[in-house]
Amino acid sequence: MSTAKAFAALNDHDPLVPFSFERRELRAGDVNIEILYCGVCHSDLHQARNEWGGSMYPMVPGHEIVGRVTAVGSAVTKFKAGDLAGVGVMIDSCRACNNCKREMEQYCEEGMTGTYNTLERDKVTMAQGGYSSAIVTEERFVFHISEKLDLAGVAPLLCAGITTYSPLRFAGVKKGTKVGVIGLGGLGHMGVKFAVSFGAEVTLISTSPSKQKDGERLGAHKFLLSTDKEQMKQFDSYFDVLLNTVSAPHNYDQYLSLLDFEGRMMIVGLPAKNPSVAPFALLKNRRSITGSMIGGTAETQEMLDYCAEHNIVADVEIIPIQKINEAYERMVKNDVRYRFVIDTKTL
Ligand code: NAP
Ligand code: ZN
Ligand code: ZN
User: Fold this and answer.
1) Nearest residue CA, atom 4 of ligand 1?
2) Per-block average pLDDT, block size 10, for the chain (347 residues)?
3) Distant-in-sequence, close-in-space partners of 43: CB < 8 Å, separation ≥ 6
4) Is 307 a member of any domain?
5) Are residues 45 and 177 in the same domain?
6) Which domain holds residue 130?
7) Which atom of ligand 1 is least distant from the CA of 160?
């Protein structure tokens, strides 16, 4: 066992505080990683504050983890000490069901094991996340990271990156596809980057007029202010694919009306309250709504390799861990450009 330094939520309302806990002894299939950076996802905040229900405390959030391998177990073949490595939103699954065999472990029929806020598969140990100095985990759920990219910018790829890459690939986004990305936060800004990189015609759909310039800088071709009814009318039945990354309660209908014939809205945002949908908004143009959860292990490595090849990283604001509570407050106010990343040296 080794002691990890961390920050944890002790309940659903107090600020996160310094915390320490034991990481397990290295097992044969394990990789021990010294964490260097960890991204701050809106899901961390939803869970720390128990906005989805069922939160377990003490909770060390964080599932956008990058660092250096310090030791590997005797059965590990993919990693050696000194390698860069990443860990995302899951650390285990049953590995035997159809979805695990497809390397789509996020849809494991027995339920994937999240990186934190859950019990590990032994049903005893609490999984603890990346706002910590080290993690010990199974190599299947550890990814290779290119030495070429800025490491702090890579961290958010482990959740915000794969969560937007996977649905855009699944929807077959390619040259000429009309894609609307709803919400320019951590996920949204990666969605814009990927859709642009796949050759799509990309529109940023935002509630924040001040983000128009950033959208353009990120490569978006058009900007649609969703609070402006006239502008929304101009884009009626326009898009093939919408990627909905909104974190706050909202209704789907106003966005569904933007979909062209057989267009689909891919849902990745997980607000605390369920959005409402009017069937009429779906019937027109035979529209559909599809959900998507992160991405599987094979696809996550594919995405990381794609980013290395195309020089894609997140736009980040690096913070010391002591600023995590302030970062949460700023996230709620949409004041993130576009991902906070913790420098874990500051622990
Ligand atoms: P974030 O950085 O806080 O960005 C969310 C964005 O939503 C904001 O920047 C804002 O963009 C927009 N927004 C906020 N309030 C809104 C409202 N009332 N109406 C319309 N738009 C609004 O959050 P994130 O880290 O990208 O996460 C986004 C959501 O995805 C969260 O709910 C998170 O839990 C979820 N998530 C899901 C998965 C998955 O596997 N499916 C993975 C990771 C995260 P504008 O200012 O541009 O409007
Ligand atoms: Zn996340
Ligand atoms: Zn499974």
Assistant:
1) 185
2) 96 98 97 98 98 97 98 98 98 98 98 98 96 98 97 98 98 98 98 98 97 98 98 98 96 96 98 92 97 98 98 98 98 94 98
3) 63, 89, 159, 270
4) no
5) no
6) 2-158+314-346
7) 43
